[in-house]
Design brief:
The structure is a single chain. With 180 residues, the chain is of the alpha/beta class. It is 26% helix and 20% strand. A hairpin with a 3-residue loop joins strand 3 and strand 4.
């Protein structure tokens, strides 16, 4: 009645067709790269000391140069040739960057410094990175009273001394002489 049918099992060797997947990748990868938001890093150009200490004799009066020294207990604003202009003591919260900014605005208004764009920040070795960044912002920018926005909606700020150089602070002479 029943016939014993033997079925032949055929071996089929077929290749996997990945053409559709490759087409998808060719389209998807450029699309993802074009729509990805890359992180934007703002770069602040600074002038670092060269390390050479050769004294070049000149007969001219050296140019005016402003310096801000970050000490653990205060900020000192100096003119390189004439000396200390103002010492700004720390507040309860730390450095008084607002007073520094206001004083530098007064200095910038003075005829001797109104065309200067450079300033030197001198720090002691244990100065915190956050203090350095906030000092750089305080010496670079002026917050305007009238708010102006650029085409992207960012507030436009004025400049004080945007060309910042950095170096090591000289030894504190006030500590040795007992002054505060």
């Amino acid at each position: 009645m029943f016939r014993n049918k033997t079925r032949k099992i055929r071996e089929i060797n077929t290749e996997l067709n990945i053409t559709a997947f490759m087409n998808l990748m060719v389209v998807l990868v450029p699309f993802l790269l074009m729509t990805a938001v890359f992180s934007q890093v703002s770069i602040l150009n600074m002038n670092l000391p060269t390390g050479t200490s050769e004294d070049i004799p000149t007969e001219e009066e050296p140019p005016k140069a402003l310096e801000v020294i970050l000490r653990p207990e205060r900020l000192d604003v100096l003119e390189r040739n004439s000396g200390l202009l103002k010492s700004i003591p720390n507040t309860e919260d730390g450095y008084d960057f607002l007073s520094l900014n206001l004083f530098l605005q007064q200095v910038k208004a003075h005829p001797e410094f109104n065309t200067d764009t450079g300033i030197t920040l001198l720090m002691e070795p244990d100065t915190a990175y956050d203090a350095l960044i906030q000092t750089m912002d305080a010496v670079r920018l002026i917050e305007r009273e009238e708010v102006e926005l650029d085409e992207k909606g960012n507030q436009i700020q004025g400049e004080l001394f945007p060309n910042i150089s950095m170096g090591d602070a000289p030894p504190d002479t006030r500590k040795k002489s007992g002054k505060k």
